[in-house]
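Notebook B, p. 112. Complex prediction, attempt 2.
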Amino acid sequence: MTNPIINLVDGSFIFIIAISVLLLIGVTLAMLYFCFRYSEKRNPQADQSITGNTTLEVIWTVIPLFLVLGMFFYGWEGFKVMRNIPENAMMVKVTGKMWAWSFEYENGKKSDTLLYLPYAKDVRFELHSSDVIHSFYVPAFRVKEDCVPGRTNKMWFNTSRMGEFDILCAEYCGMNHAYMLGKLRIVPEEEFNEWVNKKDTVQNTQQSQSPSVDTTKKVITDTVKLKSDTTFIRQK
Amino acid sequence: MSHTLAHNEVSFLEYQGKHKGIWGWLLTLDHKRIGIMYLVAILLFFFVAMTLGILMRLEMLTPGETIMKPQTYNSIFTLHGVIMVFLFIIPAIPAVFGNFILPIQIGAKDVIFPRLNLFSWYLYIIGGILAIISLFTGGGAADTGWTFYVPYSIRSAQNVSMATFAAFVLGFSSILTGINFIATIHRLRAPGMTWFRLPLFIWGLYATSWIQVLATPIIGITLALIILERMLGIGVFDPALGGDPLLYQHLFWIYSHPAVYIMILPAMGVVSEILPTFARKDVFGYKQIAISSLGIALIGYLVWGHHMFASGMSNTSRVVFSLLTFLVAIPTGVKIFNWVATLYKGSIKFSAPLYYVLAFIFIFSVGGLTGLVLGALATDVHVTDTYFVVAHFHYVMFGGMGIMFFATCHYWFPKVFGKMYNEKLAVIACTVIIIGFNILYFPMFIMGYMGMPRRYYDYLPEFQGWHVLSTVGSWILVSGIMFMFGNLFYALFKGTKAATNPWGGTTLEWRVPSPPPLENFDEIPVVTGGPYVHDKPTYIMHPSRELQHQNGGGKISQEVKSH
C-alpha cells in the first residue's frame, strides 16, 4: 500500500540529495582539476588579470536560488500532507512521561508501551506530556512531533504496513531517555477490534495489568535487547 | 618617534615592559600577547572536550553499558557540547587570531580598547572556571544537553544553574570582544585602507562581531531566566506555572542559530586569506565574498525557527522559517564558488594550510548541502533530533570551523611564534585528520536517516556496525590531531627561524617581522591598493620617508586617493 507521507519524505530526500551530490561532485572536480592544471609546476606564472566575473556571479547566485526554491516547495508539499490531518481518522491520545509511553483509545481503552493499530487506517494522534518535553517518533512512518507539557500537539499517519515497528523518544528527557521506547503493532482490523473492545472490568484489571507490565519488560529486555538501567527496572 | 623605535627593536615575545615574567603576560595590554593567552586557554578546553568526545564514542562501541552509566553519559555529552560551543568554537578564531592579526592587517598598533580586551580574556577565564566548578558542586555536572531545554533544565537535580551562569559570563566576554573589534575596524584603519581594501578575514570578523554584540544579550537574558526559574520559580518557561517551553526554544535559538555564523564566518575569512596566498593571485570576486559575509549574518538572524520544526510551532512559521533557511544557502554557495574560482589560472603552491582549505571546501560543502535536508520541512520532521543532525553540525562546525582553526594554526604559526614547523609531517597529520573525520561522522548521516535518535546512551542492535565504524574513526581522528599539535609544539622549540613572509602573502601582517614587534609598525603604513594584489606593492611601510622622497611630502592623501 502506498503511504503519502513516506513517499513524499523519501521523495524529497532523494531529490535534495541527488542535486546536492551533483553540486558536490561539480565543486570537488573543479577544485581538483584547477589544483592539477594550475599547480606551480604546470603554471609558473599566475594570471593576475582575473579578479572576478559578473556573469558568473549572477549565474551562481540565480541557479542555486531556483534549486533551493525547488527543494523548499518539495519539502512543503510533504509537510502539507503531514499537517493536513484527516478529520475522520481514528484518534489515539499519546502521553509521554519519564520514561515511558502510554496510549488511550477513543473508547477509553488504555495501553502502556504497546501501541496497537488496525491496518490501512488513517490514525491521528493527540500528543501530551505529563512532565518534560518528549518527542513521539516512529521512524518507519517518517513522522515525529514533540509532546510538550501544557499543550496538545497533533500528528497523523496511515497504517499502510502490517507488522511491528519501533516507537522512540527523540527529544532528550533525562537519564533513561534512550530507554523510552515503545512498540507499534499494526494488525488486521478484526484483530484490532477484538483487542480494543476487550473491556477491562474491575476484576480482570489486575490480570490485564500484569501482562501489560510483562509486555513492557519484554519490549525493553527482549525485543529491543537493551541493557536497561537496573534502578529503572526496579522502580517499575 | 625614537621612543616607538626602541619598543620596536625586539619582538613582542621578548619585550620586557613594566611587568616581568608571568605578570608580563597576565597584565599585558598587547593584543598579540592576549591572543596567545586565549590560545593557551582555548587549547586546554579543546583537549578536555575532545577527551569527552572520545569517551562518548567509546561508550557507543557496544549496545548497553560499555564504560559508563547513563547519567554519566548524559553529563558527558552536555559538557562536550557546552565546552566545545562556548569555550572553543565561538572564541577560537576571533579571540586568538582575530586579536593577533586584526590590528596588524588594518595597519594599527593595537585594538582600540586594550584594557577592555584584557578584561574580556579574564571574563573568558572566569566563565571557564565557573564551568569547571559546576562539575563538582551542587548536584554535579549538568545533564541537560548544551541546549538547556526547559522544563527538563528546570527540574534536573544537577548543577544546571552554575553551568548556565558560566555561559552567561562567557557571553559578556564575547560581547565585549565584538564591540572592541567593531570599533577598531571603524576607527583604526590605516590611511588608504578603505572598506573594500580590507582583507576578507577582517570582513568575516566584522560580520561576526555584529552578531556577537546584537545576539549574545538574548542568550544572556534567557540563561538568567533559567536560573531565576530554578531558584524562585518565576514561571516564565515552566508550563506548570503558566510559562511556555516553546518561548524558551525561540529565545535560545534567536541567539544560538546566529551563533553558528559567529562560529563559521571568521573561519570563512581565513579561507579567503589562505587561497590567494597559495594560488599566488588575487581572490576571485572580492566584493561578493565580502558582502556575502554580511548577507549570511543578516539572513542568519531570521532562520532560528528551523530548529523547531517538530516542536508544535504554528504551520505558518514552519513554512516561513523553511523558506528563509533555504535563502541562507545562497550567500554560502557564492563564497564556495568564488573560492574554487580563485584557483583558476593561479600558480598554486601546495602547503599544509592549503591542504586544510581544500579539505574544508569539500567537508563544509557536505555539511552545507545536508543542511538543505534539514531546511526542507518534510525531511526535517523525519531526521530532526537524530544522528543526521549530529553528523550535519559536526561537518559544518568541526569540518568548517575546526578544520579552519587547524589551518589557521599552521598559516599564522610562523608569524605568531617566528618559527617554522615540519611541512611534511603537517601534511601527513592533515591527511590522517581528514580520513578520521569522515569515518567518524559520515556513518552518522546513515544512522540518522535509519532513525537513530541523538543523545541516546543506548541503541538498537541494527545500528551497531555503523557505531563501531564511527568509533574507529574517532581514534584515527584523535591520532591525527595529537600528531598535528605535536608537530607544532615541537616546532615551537626546535623549529627553524621563520622569514618575514614565508608564504608570499600580500596582506600587512606579512610586511612586519616574525614575530612582530610590540607596536607592530614603526610608522603607520599607507595603503594604496587591494589586499591580494600580487604584481605590485600596495603598501607604503614608511610613508614619512618614502613619500617625502617621491612627492616632496604632505601628499599622502593625494597618493592614497589616486589609486
